Amino acid sequence: MKILELEIENVRGIRNRITLKPNGENFVIYGPNGTGKSAVVDAMDFLFTGDISRLAGRGTKGISLKDHGPHIDTEPKEAVVTAKIKINDIDKPITLKRVMSKPKELICSEIEKGIIEETLEIAEKGQHVLSRSEILKYIAAEAGKRAEEIQAILNLDILEEIRKTFVTIKREADRAVQTDKANHETSIAIIKLSLEMEEFSENEILKKVNECRVILKGELIDALDLERLKDGISPITKDEKDRVDSELLKRTLAAATKLIHEKGNETYEVEKKLRQTIKALKEDERLKRDLAGKRLLDLGISLIDETGSCPLCLTKWEPGKLETFLRERLLKAKEAEEIEEKIRKLATQNDTEITKLRGYINTIAIASEKLKLEEVKENLEQWKERLTKWSDNLRQSVEDYPTAEVRKESFITFLADEYWEESLRKLVKTAEGIEKLPPEQKAWDALTELRPILKRYFDEKKKYENSKRFAERATVLSKTYTDTKDRVLESLYNSVNQDFTLYYRFLHGEDEKSFYAELKPEGSQLDFKVDFYGRGTHHPRALHSEGHQDSMGLCLYLALNKQISEEKVKLIILDDVVMSIDNNHRRNICRLLKHHFPQSQFIITTHNRTWARQLNTDSVVKSRNMVEFRGWTVETGPNYEEGKNVWEDIQRKLERNEIASAAHQLREHAEFFYENACDSLKAEVCYRSDGRWELGDFLSGAKKAYKENLKLAKNAANSWGKREEVEAYTEIESQVNEIIQRTQMEHWGINENIHYTKWIDFTKEDFLPIMEAFQDLEGMFKCFECQTIISLNTKGVTLTNVKCPCGKIFWNLEFKK
Amino acid sequence: MTLKSISKQVVDEFIGELLKTKFLEERQLESLKELLYSGIFRKEDLVKLLNEEEDYEDS
């Protein structure tokens, strides 16, 4: 996607309507601060995203799109952005429009919406805009924050969301397994008790069932089927519901006693540890708050602005201090999460024993009822209820769990119930008095009682197996996803790192030819270190200058942009990003954009006039795509001039008889142009310690270099026997000599030492030959096709050629050996 | 299809790895892929999908 035309009405600092026509090509808006350049960036941001990112995020409390998006004197319905855009393979331009009164609604035809859906999906993330403050996000950020920022720019947040979801599912599944395991073990314990089994297995149950069936003269069965337990056996009694198996009762009483005595100590120790851990968590107010407010902490960190003040209460903090403080608390939250896990394990351990004991008590309570021991039954029911409540507490939140220290004696009493000893005595005595049942009756009753507990066993077994299988799946999915994500991201970051290094080396040339960087994911963090002149890798802010850091940010963004655009959004908006970068490196940025991003459309804003002109001189931006914002008032918005061509501008001045202004402009332009020409042709310029070179210094250096290279090219063509080339060079030689002669004759006309008043006597006719001579000379240094200054190329110390980027001009300088 | 290509690549490779393990059935993997591709899913949707086999067997 590229922008052909942009129309902005009443957005931010723009009053009424301005129309810009990039025509799908690079475009630059330059001018002093406060002239409305960024309003153009905001307008594009609004068109594609329905929002203005500058009005959201850190430090924007009290600022809203509705109130501060439209020009201050207009209503939201009057703030409109319209653009004609070009989609890669589609010839017909598409018109998009958005009005601030309905920011969520992108206006375009349904058919067009379908065509641009995927492109808009990328564009609406708004990641194609880079401002200086964003540059610093990637460079200055801590490793964890950088990973977030970079994942956000790459729209990878969803990967982290998926990972977190898998981890949550796994954690919950593990908890379910613990609970289901406790219930399953209880059901086994009850069967073991009921059938008097030493070791538990389903075969053993079947054996016991068949033993009963043999006593009852039934045939053996080959599988444990609830419906076949009494299959083919005639009932030997009419009503067995009030009868108690004294042997089973005795065994259950023994099992419960054994559990209380044997497991009592262990359960007490676990309970003690559990309460201590919960108490420690509850008493550490910060730890408790951090656990509860982890989300709030994440949000808080994201809202801290550059002043470093608290986003909630606006309390002033030294920059960076509040963020460090909150990050420490986030670490505490992690510690709290680990403590929570420890609590869960301890709670499950005790829950398993309590659930088992509850099962025994239930069996004993049923027997008590049958034996008409009402008081005992009542006590047992209350005990069971207490154990159930305890179990519930262990399975729920730690918030309400008691933390008071318990003495061992009172704990055992609590576990065993104060009436237990008395109930036990009564029950044992009653059990002794129960008439022993004949074997047939005993077998019949065993099968009767087995049915419900066997059903429970099967149900619990299935539930436990399902939850185990689910937990296993959740574990595999969680691990496989995390491993895959890490692998893909590592490869992505390697690729970004390679591009970053390439761009940075390109930008800094010989100075940083061995530069390298390390961009490595470390868990949820992203470590970024850069080489410092062969002296090892360091944090990007540790040793490099501010300008180098800015250029790193730009290179990293451009490397990331390759991943963002997906070859669909070819638009990159650079909002005043070269503030700290010096002149020479800015020029290299022009070359970087031209060389590495020929297919992209850059919309650049800058307050730096020199860089704007460099962008033009190096053919990154055509003259017609340069707009100068000269001034601004709240009533009228920006005062701007577009598509300025220096020669047309001088011509216009001559028409108006503004000779002094025309001469000044020509001199200023020529100084800038020949400085760049000297740079491109590696020309020799007379050294000045004060660095104040004048037009004459650059002009003579550039002319000399041009003529020497031309002579060399002619001789080289001769050595290869290329007659036609020799003739062409001779023709250029004669042209350039003639032009140079004219400029020498007319050079006085732009001499800066001529006093302003002298121009009063000059006419258009006097100055026109001067302008034409310089225009012609400039033409000799530039390619007619690509409008770029020719440059001298070398291999080590050997001169190889002079050429322009498009290759239309190519002077071979290598001789036949 | 609302995921970007990197995210899609992760999902594709993830499903590819699971396919090798034969841990889930192909129809489950297809559903999982679609769910993750959509970019909009709830935890409950994934839980339901992972439990599908039991439902399938039970029905």
The end-to-end span of chain B amounts to 31 Å
Helices of chain A, by number, come to 23
- Biggest protein-protein contact in the assembly: A-B, 29 and 24 residues
Q: Please tell me how large the radius of gyration of chain B is.
A: 12 Å
What share of the residues of chain A does DSSP label as strand, in percent? 5-15%
The chain-level mean pLDDT of chain B equals 77
Q: How do the helices and strands follow one another from N- to C-terminus of chain B?
A: HHHH
Any idea of the CATH class of one domain in chain A?
Answer: Alpha Beta
Number of strands of chain B: 0
What does this structure look like?
Chain A is α/β, with parallel strands linked by helices and 817 residues long. Among the domains of chain A are: 1-128 and 570-644, Rossmann fold, CATH 3.40.50.300; 246-436, no CATH class; 659-812, no CATH class. Chain A is built from 23 helices and 16 strands. Chain A has helices at residues 37-49, 65-68, 110-123, 132-140, 143-153, 157-194, 202-215, 246-283, 285-292, 294-303, 321-370, 374-395, 408-416, 420-433, 439-508, 546-565, 583-596, 609-617, 646-655, 659-680, 695-719, 723-746, 764-781, and strands at 2-9, 17-20, 27-30, 80-86, 94-99, 129-131, 517-522, 525-531, 537-538, 571-575, 601-606, 626-633, 637-642, 791-795, 798-803, 810-812. In chain A, the strands form 4 sheets. In chain A, strands 6-10-11-3-12-13 form a 6-stranded mixed β-sheet, sandwiched between helices. A 4-stranded antiparallel β-sheet of chain A has the order 2-1-4-5, covered by helices on one side. In chain A, a hairpin with a 7-residue loop joins strand 4 (80-86) and strand 5 (94-99). The longest helix of chain A is centred in the middle third of the chain and has 70 residues, at 439-508. Chain A is elongated, with a radius of gyration of 43 Å. In chain A, 36% of the residues are buried. The mean pLDDT of chain A is 84. The model of chain B is unreliable at 54-59 (pLDDT under 50). Chain B has one domain. Chain B has helices spanning 5-21, 26-38, 43-50, 52-58. In chain B, helix 1 packs antiparallel against helix 2 and helix 2 runs antiparallel to helix 3 (43-50). By secondary structure, chain B is mainly α. Chain B contains 4 helices and no strands. In chain B, 76% of the residues lie in helices and 0% in strands. Chains A and B meet through helix 6 and helix 15 of A and helix 1 and helix 3 of B.
